[in-house]
Amino acid sequence: MTHDEILKALYDETMVGNAPAVLELTNQGLEDGLTPSQLLFDALIPSLEEVGARFERGDWFVPEMLIAGRAMAGALEVLRPLLAATGAESVGTFLMGTVKGDVHDIGKNLVNIMLEGAGFTVIDLGVQVPPEKFIAAIEEHKPDIVGMSAFLTTTMPMFKANINAIEKAGLRDKVIIMVGGAPVTQEYADVCGADGYAADAATAVRRAKDLLAAKRASASV
Ligand code: B1M
Asked: Is the CB of 56 under 6 A from ligand 1?
């Protein structure tokens, strides 16, 4: 198979949720010299975007989204060690979770992988994380940055609820807060009182590093 054929097959098999084929094509692509980024950005992510578009049009339903998501998650497990750094000194601690009421985690997991790849220590609280769990984890792990993902317009208000709870617990000035997820915008992040927003995993890493550098610089003057 040519590289284009592998990418096309990976796109197609992810869309129909054929997890064994997705795993095989991911491994085959890597063996044939495709990079993890090509597999992600030229096949896996566009495929899930198309699944979402079909769901939105009413052509496909939740089970189709579910099996496509599972197939993508299997591929991510193969790509994780290739994208994540090995043995690099930690540049900071990032506490991450998908907000209460929301079970989407593929995007969050991808952000985590890219953060690990950039040298962050990532503590992942999983999905459906309520405010009290964020607070307990901030107290326990003392992270530099708290990241929250929301993928539904109905769960985005949890950002503000979490930030209010963090403020009430007296922890707001101890952490940088970043938000993200498919429906989130910079404007929404500003309204919630977050310190940072990013539209995708690569930008999230850059933004995290910039925010941390700015905080450390202001602390040292
Ligand atoms: Co659902 N879902 N889903 N879903 N799902 C979406 C999000 C949706 C956009 C589909 C659509 O209508 N087009 C829509 C939300 C509409 C809206 O509110 N605006 C939707 C819906 C409606 C629902 C349900 C309500 C459906 C129902 O039951 N009727 C339901 C809700 C369940 C719940 O959470 N309570 C539901 C359920 C599910 C499944 C469980 C079946 C499955 C999730 C599987 C899983 O995650 N383990 C699923 C899936 C797979 C999707 C789509 C198809 C794919 C999501 C995905 O993984 N994308 C999605 C459609 C779409 O997004 N196009 C959809 C790939 C991923 C790499 O991208 O998630 O955007 P993304 O992550 C990006 C950025 O957002 C960013 O970086 C990531 C990597 O680049 N980012 C951050 C993420 N977090 C960040 C944090 C940061 C910074 C950047 O800083 C901290």
From this structure: yes
State the pTM of this model. Answer: 0.91
Tokens of 11: 């796109």
Do 208 and 107 lie in a common domain?
Answer: yes
Last residue of a domain, one of 85, 101, 127: 85
Q: Is residue 73 located within the same domain as residue 149?
A: no
148 Cα–ligand 1 center, Å? 14
pLDDT digits (tens, 9 = 90+) for 13-39: 999 999 999 999 999 999 999 999 899
Q: Does ligand 1 come within 6 angstroms of the Cβ of 55?
A: yes
Q: What span, in angstroms and rounded, lies between the C-alpha atoms of 79 and 81?
A: 6
CATH of the domain at 202: 3.40.50.280
Q: Is residue 69 in contact with ligand 1, taking CB distance under 6 Å? A: yes
- Type of residue numbered 155: T
CB of 49 closer than 6 A to ligand 1?
yes
Quick: pLDDT tens for 78-113: 998 888 755 557 889 999 999 999 999 999 998 998
Task: For residue 86, give both structure tokens.
Answer: 């090995």
Residue type, 129: V
From 151, 176, 185, give the residue whose CB has the most ligand 1 atoms within 8 Å, as the site to mutate: 151
Verify that 113 and 211 share a domain, yes or no: yes
Last residue of a domain, one of 50, 85, 120: 85
CATH of the domain at 13: 1.10.1240.10
- Among residues 183, 177, 129, 178, which one has the least CA distance to residue 151? 183
Specify the length of the chain in residues: 221
Nearest atom within ligand 1 for CA of residue 104: 46
